[in-house]
Amino acid sequence: METKQFKAESKRLLDMMINSIYTHREIFLRELLSNASDAIDKIYYKALTDDSLTFDKDSYFIKVTADKENRILKIIDTGIGMTKEDLENNLGTIAKSGSLAFKSENELKDGHDIIGQFGVGFYSAFMVADEVTVISRAIGSDEAFKWESKGAEGYTIVPCEKDSIGSEIILKIKDNTEDESYDEYLEEYRLKGIIKKYSDFIRYPIKMDVTESKLKEGSEDEYEDVQEEQTINSMVPIWRKNKKDLTTEDYEQFYAEKHYGFDKPIKHIHISVDGAVRYNAILYIPEKIPFDYYSQEFEKGLELYSNGVLIMNKCADLLPDYFSFVKGMVDSEDLSLNISREMLQHDRQLKLIAKNINKKIKSELVNILKNEREKYEEFYQSFGRQLKYGVYSDYGMHKEELQDLLMFYSSKEKKLVTLDEYVARMPEEQKYIYYATGETTERIDKLPQTEMVADKGYEILYFTEEIDEFAIRMVMAYKEKEFKSVSSGDLGFDADVDNETESEEKENKDLFDYMKDILNGKVKDVRVSKRLKSHPVCLATDGAVSIEMEKILNAMPN
Ligand code: ADP
Ligand code: MG
């Protein structure tokens, strides 16, 4: 039997490659810069085993130049370069990755930085260019070659001149059409922005000639435009540095640079894990609520990097909803990316990372609560509600994890206390954790229902937010102590019913019946109460639903 080769319609394939893989056009620059970085890395790795090569880090760089008038954008590197065959194989064959081959040939397994693997990124240049030229001279060769292509039509390779080792990728940026403008890819400001966004942590300098307005020499008020070569990327990612060498200011600066927020974070968490999945992360607990936090528009998520290259701006899967306030980034070399490198292929690694991160955030919050109470209370003012939603959501699945982080205003302490603190100082005979619901602490103070419990010397937690009681109903009991509303019929201590009450009940039967009648179905029963002190009457409930909850439930749309 003869096995036939698949035929591919390469024109269409290329067209698909160019137009359907990526969601954002701007990533073409990320792809070309990643290739340039890979090319330099290859010299670096070769030098490790080849004595005739030395790698002097300072002489390697990438340069981006834009010529607006002629609509030419160049990405120049001092990397390993390509021979004629390399050009043919790597740029002439779709889905052929010279970088992937390099990794296996050189048995680079872990900890390397080479980014390429799919052999398609290069073609993304055609999203913004109608013609791409590559001039390249390979290491150890004195010949240079020019590869040129207008996309689907194919390519040519001819010998040419080039003084130094490395490659120049020359893009003829598309003309604007009626609906699309491509001018931005020639704008210095925009290019700098794209480099910063995706390629800030490429290990080699990415340089640009930047125009800046400066004071004329000898003048005090006359300015002139000066061109100056600048390195745009920060190169060494802060998360790869040793924690010991970093100060709080360094982390705060990173927070500001990354626009995670305008506030100062109350805490940073720097994680470096070298286990089943390797990753680094820097997380922040913000101080202030983002203005849109409790709105539909708010998007949770952490930045996700693969080997220092940005893959996703907001990876939602890394954070549970109840920690959605956390900001920061994760970088891992162990992610299996999909072909556009915008998404993940398998989320197994991601799940592991997310689980791990979740634990760290929790334990950090516990730490702050224990050691920096004031800070925690500040944090809790902003995000406590989210934690309570967390307890309530998913049928209480996360309550064990979160209940220690909860705080409520206490009748005794007149400030926020934790459940643990409450239970620790409960008198021995006290059976329940008591709470009272109301709009404000002042209002709750005035409730007749609270008097009795307070009089017993028992502490009461004040629930002033709608979510409070729902969350606590999910928790059910803390350290085996159940929660009880001060407005429930049975408060759990003998005060309500005794002989005296019973006789009073009998004596006033007619009056009570009359009251019930007048209230016409609004109350189930009218009884004598011993819990009243300064108030003539109070409402109490029998069932599982408190008065406050009932109000909320009634207000909910069916
Ligand atoms: P990938 O980077 O995933 O391998 P690309 O389509 O981006 O795929 O690039 C294809 C191949 O072309 C690379 O693997 C590499 O061998 C080669 N290549 C691309 N750009 C350069 C460059 N600037 N210098 C040297 N080789 C390059
Ligand atoms: Mg690539």
UniProtKB/TrEMBL annotation:
Subcellular location, principal: cytoplasm
SMART domains per UniProt: HATPase_c
Domain Histidine kinase/HSP90-like ATPase residue range list: 24-177
Keywords: ATP-binding, Chaperone, Cytoplasm, Nucleotide-binding, Stress response
UniProt-recorded Gene Ontology molecular function terms: ATP binding; ATP hydrolysis activity; ATP-dependent protein folding chaperone; unfolded protein binding
CDD domains on file: HATPase_Hsp90-like
Domain of life per record: Bacteria
Stretch list, region A: 1-341
InterPro entries: HATPase_C_sf (IPR036890), HATPase_dom (IPR003594), Heat_shock_protein_90_CS (IPR019805), HSP90_C (IPR037196), Hsp90_fam (IPR001404), Hsp90_N (IPR020575), Ribosomal_Su5_D2-typ_SF (IPR020568)
Binding-site list for ATP: 31, 35, 77, 82, 90, 96-98, 117-122, 341
Cellular component, GO, one term: cytoplasm
Location within or outside the cell: Cytoplasm
NCBIfam families in alphabetical order: PRK05218.1 (NF003555)
Similarity section: Belongs to the heat shock protein 90 family.
HAMAP family reported in the protein's UniProt record: HSP90
Assembly, per entry: Homodimer.
Function summary: Molecular chaperone. Has ATPase activity.
Protein name, entry field: Chaperone protein HtpG
